[in-house]
């Protein structure tokens, strides 16, 4: 059994933090969250690879981003 989901017909949603200027944007596939995974990709490269995270790992990442746990340049 494959653990890699078929993302070919996925509905992608752009990050709410995207500013629309074509810069650093990510998209995620919320329809997979009920299955316990969160696919994420670079919106500038829609045919490129996607990363998948467990919903718990993604929630932890988002929490850490919001609290400033990661240094920024």
Give the percentage of residues in beta strands. 15-25%
N→C terminal distance? 41 Å
Structural class by SSE content = alpha+beta
Number of domain units: 1
Ranges where pLDDT stays below 50 over 5 or more residues in a row are: none
Please tell me the overall pLDDT: 84
The total of beta strands comes to 4
Number of H/I helices = 1
Strand order of the largest sheet: 1-2-3-4
Shape: globular
User: For the report, how would you describe the main beta sheet?
Assistant: 4 strands, antiparallel
Please explain how this structure is put together.
The chain is an alpha+beta fold and 73 residues long. It has one domain. The chain has one helix spanning 55-66, and strands at residues 13-14, 26-28, 37-42, 50-54. The longest helix has 12 residues, at 55-66. It is globular.
Map the helices and strands.
Elements: E1 13-14, E2 26-28, E3 37-42, E4 50-54, H1 55-66
Antiparallel strand pairs: 1-2, 2-3, 3-4
Keywords:
alpha+beta, single chain, 73 residues, 4 strands, 16% helix, globular
Tell me briefly what this model is.
This protein is an alpha+beta fold and 73 residues long. It has one domain. It contains one helix and four strands.
């Amino acid at each position: 059994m494959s653990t890699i989901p078929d993302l070919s017909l996925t509905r992608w949603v752009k990050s709410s933090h995207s500013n629309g200027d074509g810069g650093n944007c990510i998209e995620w596939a919320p329809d997979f969250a009920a299955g316990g995974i969160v696919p994420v990709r670079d919106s500038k490269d829609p045919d490129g690879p996607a990363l998948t995270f467990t919903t718990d790992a993604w929630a932890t990442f988002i929490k850490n981003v919001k609290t400033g746990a990661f240094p920024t340049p």
